[in-house]
Amino acid sequence: MKPAASSPPPSVSAVADRVRTLLDAKQWRKARDEAKQGCKADKAKFLPLLIEANTGLTREMIAKKQISEAEQVLAYLATIAPKEFVDELKKEMLGQKEVQLAQQSVVRPQGAGAARVPTVEEVAGLAARLGSGEELAASDWSRVDAWVADGLGRNLPAPKGEVPQVVQDMTAVSRAIDAVGAGNFSEAQDLLRPLSLRSLLQHWKAFLRAVIFSHQGEREKALRGFRSLEPSSLLSRASAPYLALLKEPIPLESKPSDEQLAFGLLAVGGRSGMGRRSRKGRISLGQGRSLPGVS
Question: Which of 17, 57, 95, 145 sits in a 20 to 30 Å window from 33, CA-based?
């Protein structure tokens, strides 16, 4: 008796359809594996699918803040996808790194001396005191920064009664951090503009505007913003990587560890530096100097 004939392998078109189904379901790893095998049979048909699968996987990792894993996938993607396409993903990844830097740099210190995170009502009370002309103590500002750092990336508890102005300002700061991380500097400026000079979060506005000026090559404006921060404050410590790239001495009270500074430099400038991004993908440092851009 003859053995039953094995079923024929699926056609190339059928495999491609299966990969597209996996892509639609955002099953990036399965789609990548099947597309990679498909390239052996028909590279012209499966290479675009392989690029799409790796792109989806990279963006998923970036969204989950799995930056080191995303870098590995991106390194492979650079071998099969057009440079302009890969550069755009690098820009997204560096943007996420910058958001992480901002959030990690301003996270409240731990231990016995850590500032207690105040309630929304307590912060509103501090804002009212500042608005009436009262000068706040350094410990009050530490509590404000602890409140902002604690609230980044999540919804704040709803205050009782009408929403205080400081909560609206906090929302604007949080959205501005996301905009800066994505390279949308005009949007970030628009979000920060309504914060008044008497806002409890005016120093956050000054910090973020200084960050924007750093990226746009406005060195003196950036330095004025960073110098306006209290030397021992959380935001002053967060400004250290920018000051390093701007070739400005870092105050002793604000100096981070070498590891923190190295991570900060990579996050804010990639491997090439920081400044204004031109349409040709180069970073202008002013005075006719430029470096290859990291998009």
Answer: 95
